[in-house]
Design brief:
Elements (H helix, E strand, L loop, with lengths): L3 E6 L6 H6 L2 E4 L1 E5 L2 E5 L8 H9 L4 E4 L3 H13 L3 E6 L7 H15 L5 E5 L4 H16 L4 H11 L3 E6 L3 H6 L5 H10 L1 E7 L5 E8 L1 H15 L7 E6 L3 H15 L3 E6 L2 H7 L4 E6 L4
Parallel strand pairs: 1-2, 1-6, 6-7, 11-12
Antiparallel strand pairs: 3-4, 3-5, 8-9, 8-13, 9-10, 11-13
Helix pairs in contact: 3-4, 5-6, 9-10
Length: about 290
């Protein structure tokens, strides 16, 4: 009953070891740096995260590209031809056109392979928030849930997947239009750090500020305290823009405050990192609401 493929895209920022353990298929998104295109694979085969973030710190500007329809068809069609069904959990439509491409591909492939199932879910998530939702889906597949049951669980629970971010350098948010040039300049001078989350429409939204780095990291955990459902029983994901020590600090805080036992930490990949920059820290968990 559970013999189907669970697929996501590389915006999920899942480490390669976990991708293999969970038996996932991952569509790589593309980023462009210094005029060269790179595929963002979970094993970072084309560029290591530290190299990516070092170049950003040195002034390089990275851009990103969504998966297109042909990319999806190329990866999914051979699986359908093998008699496999596919559930694709996609990067938020509020941040990327990847989901739209996947839905067009699903319609095309559905006409060609009417006996197969190819479902696309807009997770309205990003980075390890998307990754944590995929992790929960994979656990349900492991216990024998059908493709429809897992799809429905994701649809019903995706707005409980909470994302809380802070960034260290406001200039990256300025480039992406998230804050004004004046806000970025003043905030940098006064060491004002924004606190952001992903809303119910899958957009990255600024919701507050903190004075200094330590306060901004604490604010992430404070938000978890306000909304998390049974945090001590959860597996928590944390991603970071080449600032692992700060991510570890947040991990220790959630363990101390909530009795959390399992925390996974990984890099913010280049798809999100191109826009959030070095020094980003993000905390992900299940809550009563986003």
């Amino acid at each position: 009953m559970n013999d189907y493929i669970l697929m996501t895209d590389s915006s999920a920022d899942l480490p390669d070891k976990l991708v293999r353990e969970l038996n996932l298929e991952v569509l790589p998104l593309t980023f462009v740096l210094k005029g060269k295109n790179y595929k963002n694979w979970p094993d970072n085969r084309e560029m290591a995260p530290k190299v990516f973030y070092r170049q950003l710190r040195e002034g390089a500007v990275a851009t990103t590209a969504a998966v297109n329809v042909a990319d999806v068809v190329e990866r999914v069609e051979p699986l359908l031809q093998q008699g496999k069904d596919v559930l694709l959990l996609s990067f938020s439509s509020g941040l990327s056109a990847t989901c739209d491409s996947a839905r067009i591909a699903a319609q095309e492939l559905g006409e060609q392979y009417p006996e197969r199932k190819f479902f696309v879910v807009d997770t309205l998530c990003a980075s390890l928030g998307q990754g944590l939702l995929v992790w929960h889906a994979a656990r349900r597949r492991e216990r024998g849930d059908s493709i429809e049951a897992v799809r429905d669980w994701v649809e019903e629970n995706k707005l409980h997947l909470c994302h809380w971010f802070t960034v260290d350098d406001l200039m990256f948010l300025k480039r992406g239009g998230r804050v004004s040039a004046a806000t970025a300049m003043v905030g940098t001078m006064l060491s004002i750090k924004p606190v952001l989350h992903v809303d119910d429409e899958g957009h990255l939204i600024k919701v507050g500020t903190a004075r200094g780095r330590k306060a901004s990291l604490k604010a992430l955990v404070d938000h978890m305290e306000e909304t998390a459902i049974g945090p001590g029983e959860q597996t928590i994901f944390i991603s970071h823009g080449d600032c692992e020590e700060d991510a570890k600090q947040v991990a220790e805080d959630v363990k101390a405050r909530f009795g959390v036992k399992t925390v996974l930490i990984n890099h913010v990949g280049p798809v999100i990192g191109a826009h959030s920059g070095p020094g980003t820290v993000a905390l992900f968990f299940l809550g009563a609401h986003r």
